[in-house]
Specification:
By secondary structure, this protein is of the alpha/beta class. The protein has helices spanning about 5-15, 45-55, 80-90, 100-105, 110-115, 145-155, 205-220, 250-265, 290-295, 310-320, 330, 335-345; strands at about 25-30, 40, 60-65, 95, 120-125, 125-130, 135-140, 165-175, 195-205, 225-230, 240, 245-250, 270, 275-285, 300-305, 320-325, 350-355. Strand 3, helix 3 (about 80-90) and strand 4 form a beta-alpha-beta unit. The protein is globular, with a radius of gyration of 26 Å.
Length: about 375
Amino acid sequence: MKVKDIIEFMDNWALPKLIDKWDNTGFQIGNEDRKVERILISLDLDDRVLNKALEERYDMIITHHPLIFKPLEKITTLSYKEKLVYNLIREDIAVYNAHTNLDLAKNGVNDELAKLLGLKNSIPLQKNYEEDLYKLVVFVPLTHADIIREVLGNNGAGYIGNYSHCTYNIEGFGTFLPMEGTTPYIGNEGELEKVREARIETIVQKDRLSNIIKEMLNVHPYEEVAYDIYPLENKGDKYGYGRVGDIYETSLQEYLNYVKEKLDTPYLTVYGNMNKKVKRVAVCGGSGSSFIHDSYIHDADLYITGDIKYHDAQLAYELGLTLVDAGHFNTEKVILPVIKEYLIKKTNNTVNIDMLNEPSPPYVVY
């Protein structure tokens, strides 16, 4: 495995198109052709992570939070962050991070947090991105219909919800007259041909369209392929921050005990009414105070996130929403074992992958 292979695996999950405009994340340090035998996963990259990487000879570090968030004017050993970057380059350790794109991604930070805390039928709290969809229609002789359907599906066409390879098919007759200079797959120059054909329709996401057409043309038998592309008003997958969903109705105190157990934390800071039943819960990993009003709009009884300020809690109280600050680290650490398991499968267990599940900076409740 090389660094660029690991980056491709991660980018296929945490799609770069989902990176928010204010964010700076992705492949930040290193040589993409460097061989990778050992990867260290962490929420942040600080001197403790670097020292572990050096001591145990890791080739690549993957984090959620970007190491380089704002542009660096220089790389020296005179400041903490610059020294980290300097040493990473010197030791030839590659650094990749997936931040807002992993927050929004399917099975990313917020999906995993919602799943861990028992939310059912969860949806994003705030919609940030929708897939543009196209209808692709292609006409093909019946002898090649199966291979065209296979190529379309294997390259990402025909995804509807949790179903793939979706097509609609009609059989009919196609007619054409090969003119001078043509080399037709069926028929002869100057003679009108009538062929039994399949009309195959499928749904294609905008960013996959050009590649799917290219792969389709590569296996289509005709010299000139007849196909149509229609833009659709309906949209595809929806991506956004946070999640809101349903739980079995229970007392708030009982549910908070469940949250502490699942997040493996001895404490939570709770703002608002403690003597209530809860059946609809909103969550957001990390700093989610900007989605308090979205939680209210989605009829949540309870909102769990991190980094709550005094006036954030005041707003939630005015809206009748009970607010829980479970901590930035505790609401995002849930993704670390998921990244590890994902990369173990993608690399066929040929790369040693470990994680450092510690907050930066370290802290204690005193």
